[in-house]
Write a structure and sequence with these properties.
six-stranded parallel sheet; Rossmann fold; about 15% strand; globular; alpha/beta; about 35% helix; about 400 residues
Length: about 400
């Protein structure tokens, strides 16, 4: 006879972006879940202190069988503070990893965040990564990361952790699904700053062109950039490419979406002025308006220096956009070679070609099976992950 009460504790110290989307998805679709969260603010402090908070707020419940949390939580501290949780099946989910998360200078990297993630892996039963790239980059960096310790370094930590990892891709929402209003972007927590409460305005004086209208086949190519406004997304390269297109008198329309934080790279204000005649949408949009732009855009571009999965790119592809991504990071794992570029010059030439022949994009069917990232395809994987059976 099954125990009464919730079986699964879903614990999320940074309840925003793709972290929130995953927790909400699991709660809505898997029975027996009980959710405990903290707002998606000040992630540095969430990583440092969330375990102490949850040690005081998680209920003692004999029916609990599984503890699921993102790697923002120091799971090692939580289990030490709450010994009653030690017997649960502990599942740690990596949206990102702090061993290779980009910082402006390596001297700025706080050792503690990556160290906490290594400790959490050691006490977890299952370690889940959202891509092979995320998993491999973490496991291969443990040894070199630990060399930062001046002496008495621990040994073979990667070998202790390697039996535990598995890859479970993120669920990518379909545009027809009704989702909560949420920040748009890659979903990982920001590398700096606090979320701005003020949302940027959207340009509504022009409307994007629908690809479904055969009479509009030769309207300007509509390029969309749907990422967080931070340096790790490399907006400098993106805007430099578009300014070069403008100098060559190549016509295009532009939507720059995404959420902002307290430190917005200066290139955005410069680009807003220089590219103004081309801009259709600029800044944060509601979920529905965001998906409408994706449905009406032609090409989605990433210039990221870091990407562990790339929800925004896959959402855009699902909406019919032609992707252009760096031949690096997670992208070769998901996108065929024809959508990858190796250098800024290759990106420029690709966009120049497509701007001059937008009909090529509008006839093209992108060779990415987005259905493999749907809840229908991944449901059984997550159900098994949250079952109380053996890892």
């Amino acid at each position: 006879m099954q125990s009464e009460g919730p079986r699964v504790l879903l614990v999320e110290p940074f309840y925003g972006g793709s972290h929130k989307q995953l927790i909400d998805l699991l709660q809505q679709n898997i029975s027996g879940c009980s959710v405990f969260t903290l707002p998606a603010k000040k992630w540095h402090w969430r990583a440092r202190t969330a375990a102490l908070h949850f040690s005081q707020t998680l209920p003692i419940c004999p029916s609990h069988r599984v503890l699921f949390s993102s790697s923002v939580l120091n799971l090692c501290e939580l289990v030490a503070l709450r010994p009653d949780l030690a017997h649960l099946k502990k599942v740690l989910y990596f949206h990102e990893n702090q061993l290779v998360y980009p910082v402006r200078k390596d001297q700025e990297r706080d050792f503690q965040y990556g160290y906490n993630q290594v400790l959490s892996c050691l006490v977890s039963d299952v370690v889940v990564f959202n891509s092979i790239f995320n998993m491999d980059s973490f496991l291969s960096s443990i040894s070199s990361f630990m060399k930062k310790i001046p002496d008495h370094r621990p040994k073979d930590l990667d070998q202790l952790i390697r039996p535990k990892p598995r890859v479970e891709y993120k669920v990518v929402s379909r545009p027809e699904e009704k989702l909560d209003e949420a920040p748009i972007g890659s979903g990982e927590f920001p590398s700096s700053g606090n979320h701005q409460e003020d949302l940027h305005e959207s340009r509504t004086d022009q409307r994007p062109v629908s690809r479904e209208d055969p009479g509009d086949q030769m309207k300007p190519l509509h390029i969309v950039w749907p990422h967080r406004w931070e340096h790790d997304k490399n907006p400098e390269q993106f805007f430099s490419t578009l300014m070069k297109l403008k100098e060559k008198e190549v016509n295009f329309n532009l939507s720059v979406l995404g959420e902002t934080f307290s430190e917005v790279p200066g290139i955005f204000s410069e680009a807003r002025l220089r590219l103004d005649p081309h801009i259709l949408n600029w800044g944060f949009l509601s979920r529905g308006a965001y998906l409408q732009v994706l449905l009406q855009a032609d090409v989605v571009v990433s210039t990221a220096r870091h990407e562990f999965f790339g929800v925004a790119m896959l959402e855009a592809v699902h909406c019919g956009c032609y992707p252009l991504c760096p031949k690096a990071l997670v992208y070769p794992e998901i996108f065929p070679a024809e959508y990858l570029y190796s250098t800024p010059e290759q990106l420029f030439k690709q966009l120049q070609r497509l701007c001059r022949r937008p009909d090529i994009v509008r006839r093209h069917v992108v060779k990415v099976d987005t259905s493999s990232y749907s809840w229908t395809s991944l449901k059984a994987h997550y159900e098994a992950l949250l079952s109380a059976g053996c890892p």
